[in-house]
Amino acid sequence: MAKQIVKERMLIGGRWIAKKDSIDVYDPATSDLIATVPAASTEDVIYAISRAKEGFKRSSSLSVFERTKILQSAASYIEENADIYIQTIVLESSKTVKEARKEVRRCIETLRLSAEEAKRIEGETVAFSQMPGHEKRVGYVYRFPIGIVAAITPFNDPLNLVAHKIGPAIAAGNAVIVKPASLTPLSAIRLAEAFIHAGLPDGVLSVVTGRGEAICNPLVEHEDVRFVSFTGGYETGKEITSKAGVKKLAMELGSNSPTIVLADANIKEAVAATVEGAFGVAGQNCIGVQRIFVEESKYDDFLDRYVLATRKLKIGLKTDELTDIGPMISEKEAKRVEKWIDEAANMGATICCGGKRSKAFLEPTVLTNVPETSTISQNEVFGPVVIIEPVQSLSEAINRSNQTEYGLQAGIFTTNLEDAFTAVHQLQFGGVMINDSSDVRIDSMPFGGIKGSGIGREGVRYAIEAMTEQKVVAFKLKRSPFS
């Protein structure tokens, strides 16, 4: 795959803008410079908001047919140019070519779902006559676009998670300003190109690249921005909530996801699913499996199979079709996770396999006997590490699963229906996957968590609902229609 070293431009209000001040974008596998992108200033953000105000007038005036056509056209453009999008993801992110190919397919699906859901933004009637004195009134509720949406996106899904914010925003008739992750801004720029090609009116979409400190504060604090959609870390999310003011927020802030394996489970299937769920995208996945609780009678068998399967994973070039695990997003992040592993080992944890680092590449690591007070047990590791521990019962597994500040998704393997329903009702998470790991998502489902994992739900339909407001309409008639 050929390397690209280009000076990219950012999109503000329909214009492609270059700047002298820029930031470098590197391939995390090689540390090679692959591109530069503009480093936007606060003034650029204010300009983007002013153009978005004009863009919102245009987007809110688009018919449902026009919104649908634009979204479908953007999806088709990406499909026709899939190799470019795959190459971009592989170059700038941690993803292998197999993982990048899957993300491009999902992006296309997300945009097509957005096009379909644009047709289903529906209201409801209100029975005013239920209250004495209102017999002459009839009414209904309909949804209207909220205005300007600010979308702040992470590095781990640099195309599809951007689509999950742009697609619903456009479907609902809003304008949207995207601030992509500084480490992976190229996929967002390519996505913007698809929308320009699809005929999106000027001002409806901006992609503002650069450093978070220059962009995020003026973006989330501005009164004309009516909705902030953020995917990222808990501390940043907490800071945004303190600065945003009175406006709607949607946040996905990560997790420390557990999966429970009971004695009656299919161990072979459980191992396969949780290995994939723990180590895909080098573990940099908000619903990736981080903790596995195995009923004691099957623990040794499960652990032996798990370690064997983990050792078979191939670490290597992202462009190699046989590669299972690529690099982490940076050597800095790989060093952080390595430090957490070493801390746990020094506290008494056992490293069953992995734990070694070479630059940004970290071996898939299996830990046991991990103290619950260790950093890696309490926090979201966001790296290729999994903790496997024995439990005496389902009750113990649920209690230990819930001992976290996060609550995004969990999984359980069992053939017992009552145990499955017990887990569904007692696990404190936004999603519970039965006979699957925590790492299950389709782009139409409501996706989000509780506690420190965030606010609200993504998933196309649910994002559209969040990005719209409800308006009550009442007609007072001369006489009651019921008389």
TrEMBL record:
Name of protein: NADP-dependent glyceraldehyde-3-phosphate dehydrogenase
Protein family: Belongs to the aldehyde dehydrogenase family.
CDD domains: ALDH_y4uC
Annotated Aldehyde dehydrogenase domain residues: 16-473
GO MF annotation terms: glyceraldehyde-3-phosphate dehydrogenase (NADP+) (non-phosphorylating) activity; lactaldehyde dehydrogenase (NAD+) activity
Superkingdom: Bacteria
Keywords assigned: Oxidoreductase
Residue stretches spanning the membrane: none
InterPro entries, per database record: Ald_DH/histidinol_DH (IPR016161), Ald_DH_C (IPR016163), Ald_DH_N (IPR016162), Aldehyde_DH_dom (IPR015590), ALDH-related_metabolic_enz (IPR051020)
Pfam families according to UniProt: Aldedh (PF00171)
Record-listed E.C. numbers: 1.2.1.9
Gene: gapN
Gene3D superfamilies in the cross-refs: Aldehyde Dehydrogenase, Chain A, domain 1, Aldehyde Dehydrogenase, Chain A, domain 2
